[in-house]
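Final report, closing paragraph on structural work. Over the funding period we assembled a curated collection of sequence-structure pairs, and we close with a single example.
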Amino acid sequence: MRSRNKYLKYTVYVVILCFVGFIIAHFFVQRTVVRGNSMSPVLTSGDNLIVDRMAPKTHELKRYDIVMFTYLYKERTYFIKRIIGLPGETVQIADDGTILINGKALDDKYGTEKITDPGLAEYPVKLKDNEYFVLGDNRNHSEDSRFSDVGAVRKEQIVGRVIYRIFPFRKAGRVR
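Its predicted structure, as stored:
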């Protein structure tokens, strides 16, 4: 009788752990896979990521955070980009490829090359109180806020902030 109670006790623990894992996996974090190289070299095609779904609700998103957001023109499609412009700011990309925030040059250490197509940001883009300007790190090979099909990303579109890479194992760790 004693061993039966022991097994029942372990079964209850396993069920509770599975339930807690299910809740965390469906409400607090999300796993996603990168498709494409617009965030190269930080993220590359095939990288498996963990996205903190609570970040847009509980934390203030900051410049340089990498976020996953919904693409408005294709169902079940998400983009992963880096926040460059914050709500209320004015973003512009100068002729020489320099990113200007409120008229001042941004210290951009993430872009891999000089921006050749400023797109919509050729002229100042004033962000509303709930909008972000996002760019891929591989600037000339990224569909991002410079283009009208993406544009400024509303806070409601942001699914979460990328926090961790789980695969490939040799690159596993926190994404900064």
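The mean pLDDT is 89. The longest helix spans residues 2-28. We thank the funder for supporting this effort.
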